[in-house]
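STRUCTURE:
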């Protein structure tokens, strides 16, 4: 079936800002071939009901964590932290079966589409059977992610995770980590095995060294060299400086903070996504932003885990690229991540409208454009907004939603981000020129929810 098509948008958010009567046309591969503002009406071309905004790339996801989102919101220790949350997460990860992983990811990806995300970077770190032995097909759990993306229609950047140690200096992994552990050679074999399947699905394959605490320097160097041999432009994502304890441990190990160490010891450039990068000093903000790397911000998860607040102004002033991810999936809504990002900055600085830029005073518009550009860069895919050569990934806002009715297009996007009260003001979502959400709903949602609920109930059984 041909995917080529066209749509006229009365209002569309192009990379340079809002335009009227925009003709969007795409080819059979779902790539935009024409984006023309002030186009005359074309007979027979569909007209979007509401404003059209670019689809948001979700730059950080651990799909299985969706199944216990909301289940760790009680006090278990005198001072609960990321580390006590992680203990619970490990218990859950220890029980997952491949079909449960696929059911959880499939509902999550449909939920992402309904929440305005049109692609996802999956940071996939559960690789092995519960006892730590590889599956007969070593790629089993990564292939489950590819199937979940294909079934729901979301775009995918698959990032198998290299995980080798439990702490800086190569501390041996613990029992809770045995499903994650791979030698560097085994990771490179996995990447080689996954490459054809990713190519066949128009998914991008990259690599995620988990963190500096989990990957010793020699392994990091060898894995990057091996990745380059497979694809010298593949994306590279790493968790960095999410926790102050991680910063302290890195200082004790190397005398440097994590971001400073990484910038000194790895070829960090525009292929890299520094996930969280929450705790940096002034020099790290400067050098990190000018390295070309994307800061991967996950405001809802960072708030949920009590990580701390990224200094957006320090990054932004240096022209640093950034995007958003739903990470642990306590929130699966692109607009809400932008809202939480902006609100965290307002609370920290006691100022308003932090995300506005010179030439773009509308905060929701400026944040959306920047997060789409940074998210596309981190994804390593041509999903950077409504421009010729990019994929036709877009969201049609619901102009009949009570928060949006009667407003101009920029105010509709502002209302969607700041005033839609956690409800969705999304009407339709298109990925690569194919409609995946209509009237705010993914067509398979009932079946996907049922399979998700069954998988979660089984995982929660004693
Ligand atoms: Zn993460």
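SEQUENCE:
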């Amino acid at each position: 079936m041909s995917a080529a098509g066209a749509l006229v948008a009365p209002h569309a958010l192009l990379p340079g800002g809002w335009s009227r009567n925009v003709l969007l046309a795409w080819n059979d591969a779902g790539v935009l071939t024409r984006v023309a503002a002030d186009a005359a009406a074309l007979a027979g071309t569909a007209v979007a009901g509401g404003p059209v905004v670019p689809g948001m790339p979700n730059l950080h996801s651990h799909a299985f964590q969706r199944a216990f989102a909301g289940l760790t919101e009680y006090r278990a220790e005198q001072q609960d932290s990321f580390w006590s949350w992680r203990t619970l997460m490990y218990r859950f990860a220890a029980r997952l079966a491949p079909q449960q992983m696929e059911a959880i990811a499939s509902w999550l990806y449909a939920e992402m589409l309904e929440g305005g995300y049109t692609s996802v970077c999956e940071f996939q770190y559960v690789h092995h059977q519960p006892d730590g032995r590889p599956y007969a097909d070593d790629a089993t759990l990564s292939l489950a992610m590819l199937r979940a993306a294909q079934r729901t229609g979301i775009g995918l950047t698959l990032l198998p995770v290299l995980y080798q140690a439990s702490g800086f200096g190569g501390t041996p992994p613990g029992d809770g980590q045995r499903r994650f552990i791979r030698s560097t050679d085994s990771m490179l074999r996995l990447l080689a095995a996954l490459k054809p399947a990713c190519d066949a699905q128009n998914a991008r394959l990259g690599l995620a060294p988990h963190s500096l605490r989990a990957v010793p320097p020699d392994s990091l160097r060898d894995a990057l060299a091996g990745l380059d041999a497979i694809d010298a432009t593949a994306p590279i994502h790493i968790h960095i400086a999410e926790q102050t304890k991680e910063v302290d441990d890195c200082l004790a190990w190397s005398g440097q903070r994590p971001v400073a160490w990484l910038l000194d010891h790895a070829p960090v450039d525009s292929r890299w996504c520094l996930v969280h990068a929450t705790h940096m000093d002034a020099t790290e903000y400067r050098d990190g932003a000018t390295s070309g790397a994307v800061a991967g911000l996950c405001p809802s998860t960072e708030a949920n885990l009590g990580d701390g607040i990224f200094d957006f102004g320090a990054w932004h002033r240096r022209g640093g690229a950034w995007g958003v991810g739903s990470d642990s999936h306590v929130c699966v809504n692109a607009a809400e991540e932008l809202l939480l990002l902006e609100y965290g900055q307002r609370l920290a600085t006691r100022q308003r409208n932090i995300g506005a830029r010179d030439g773009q005073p509308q905060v929701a518009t400026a944040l959306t454009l920047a997060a789409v550009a940074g998210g596309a860069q981190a994804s390593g895919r041509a999903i950077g907004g409504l421009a010729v050569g990019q994929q036709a990934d877009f969201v049609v806002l619901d102009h009949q939603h009570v928060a949006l009715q009667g407003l101009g297009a920029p105010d509709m996007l502002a209302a969607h981000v700041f005033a839609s009260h956690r409800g969705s003001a999304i009407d339709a979502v298109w990925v690569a020129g194919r409609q995946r959400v209509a009237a705010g709903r993914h067509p398979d949602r009932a079946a996907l929810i049922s399979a998700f609920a069954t998988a979660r109930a089984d995982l929660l059984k004693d």
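REMARK: The CA atoms of residues 201 and 314 lie 38 Å apart.
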